[in-house]
Specification:
Blueprint lengths: L1 H30 L1 H7 L6 H14 L12 H29 L5
């Protein structure tokens, strides 16, 4: 009897998963980008077009690494982050040294 009960539970779970899967597929189909563009008559919003243009700029093989392609602001953010890492590393070494060799006194 336990085997029959387990089998029936497994069948119920499989039907639940198939219903959930079809519901998920339906939701994805309703909210997909291609469906939204088709309903808008093929017009692309200005913000989306600007984003796509920026992505094209990043995909061009111009010899620069990816963190160098964003312009001045990305360069400032990158160098600031690098500075924080260096300062943090120096402070970490200082702390470990101070804990390993405490001042006598």
């Amino acid at each position: 009897t336990k085997l029959i009960l387990l089998d029936s539970l497994l069948q119920e779970f499989q039907t639940y998963l198939s219903k959930m899967s079809s519901t998920f597929r339906l939701a994805v189909r309703k909210f997909s980008t291609s469906q939204a563009v088709k309903s808008a008559g093929g017009e692309v919003p200005a913000g989306f077009a600007a984003l796509k243009q920026k992505q094209k700029m990043f995909n061009i093989d111009n010899g620069l690494r990816i963190h160098e392609r964003g312009g001045v602001m990305d360069m400032v953010l990158y160098n600031t982050t690098l500075g924080f890492i260096i300062v943090g590393g120096i402070l970490w070494v200082k702390t470990v040294y101070g804990m390993a060799y405490p001042k006598k006194g």
